[in-house]
Amino acid sequence: MLDLTFIRSNPDVVKEAARLKNNSIDIDALLALDQQVVALQHEVEETRAKQNQLSKGIQQAAREKNVELRNNLIAEGKKLAEFIKAKEPELNQLTEERYNMLLLVPNIPDPSTPVGKDESENVPFKYWGELPEFDFPALDHYDLMLKHNLVDIERAVKVAGSRSYVLRGDAARLELALINFAMDKMARKGFTPLIVPSMARDFAFIGNGQFPKGRDQVYELKDQDLFLVGTAEVSITGMYKDEILKGEELPLKFVGYSPCFRQEAGTYGKDTRGVFRIHQFNKVEQYIICKADHEESVFWFEQLLQNAEELIQELELPYRVVNVCTGDMGDGKVGMYDIECWVPSEKRYRETHSCSYLHDWQARRANLRYRDAEGKVKFVHTLNNTAIASPRILIPLLETHQQADGSVRIPEALRPFMGGQEFIGRP
Ligand SMILES: Nc1ncnc2c1ncn2[C@@H]1O[C@H](COS(=O)(=O)NC(=O)[C@@H](N)CO)[C@@H](O)[C@H]1O
Questions:
Q1: Residue bearing the CA closest to ligand 1, atom 28
Q2: Which residue of 86, 134, 206, 221 is 20 to 30 Å from 414, comparing CA positions?
Q3: ipTM
């Protein structure tokens, strides 16, 4: 959510941001509604002030035993009370309408964000790692998993329906190793490890921006104010709601693990092979709460990206970084980089990480605040990036490190988390 004062003073900037983000919000309608609310609020407050004056006059008339004046003033007071009684429901309803529209206003993209209509216009700006060359017929991730009995999709579908999977054997161990590898590295970078709820209340989803527009992607627990999170970002955004943090406590640096659940509505028929796009997966999330300062946000944006790059480099996976364009970045972001790892079987890069900074757009929605050095209470800035998401990362990992004998080499960095094992599929 943007500051209403900012929208009032910069309507054209906000309209342009909406246009660039394919966001259909009508800013003129929002400002007209806002004016209605302000006018009505003013009327009600004026009437309340008159009521206060009247009650003083009534006491004065009573002291002077002026019965007629006192009765007239009481009658006038009744009329004012009726006016307020009639206007208040209208004021509340218009105020709620304005709030619901404010939730739909996008953040302003940084000028460095490429202008584009969709992901085809994201701009790659960094490549790392030599693409693998195989002198044998290389398998895709699903065939490799079947070969080594690392997955059972049929039985998972029996239990949980489409886009589900069972990880078996070394794939199950590999996923846990990757989670530990990521949590361990981030903890050693001073990020506080969290294992957060995968169930969260409505306000947490409004806070991170998933609600209201992305509600169709979220599983709801029947008859409860509880929903399954698609990312630990939701749970962490909700944790500090309504608190006022001390400036000197910032930045808060979290590395949060959670199972993630996504309906993947609208992706029917897309990425249906193997475990690329599924309803439930595990993710280790980097999350920063910092002071409300653009330079500070940009610093952490680069740091979160670098952390993920280090993890991927240690996994020895070729990747590229793309600057996500305005049409693909979503409402809340100021800037967004995706990391895409090379998938040999597809001969293209596929997304494995997504890094964003949002200034105070989430903080305003979730009421996350801090007291700065001058004692001023402000909304914080928030940022997030994937550290590891599995089984998505298993796809480039298994394919890139497959050997001529069909086994898969486990990268050095992961071996300590796999009991020192060096290969999958070797005795
Ligand atoms: N349906 C899915 N199936 C498997 N992996 C997924 C799915 N959706 C997302 N992911 C993985 O989770 C990563 C982060 O998801 S994201 O929506 O892009 N971004 C976030 O959730 C942010 N909180 C940063 O992690 C993706 O890059 C991808 O690796």
A1: 352
A2: 134
A3: 0.99
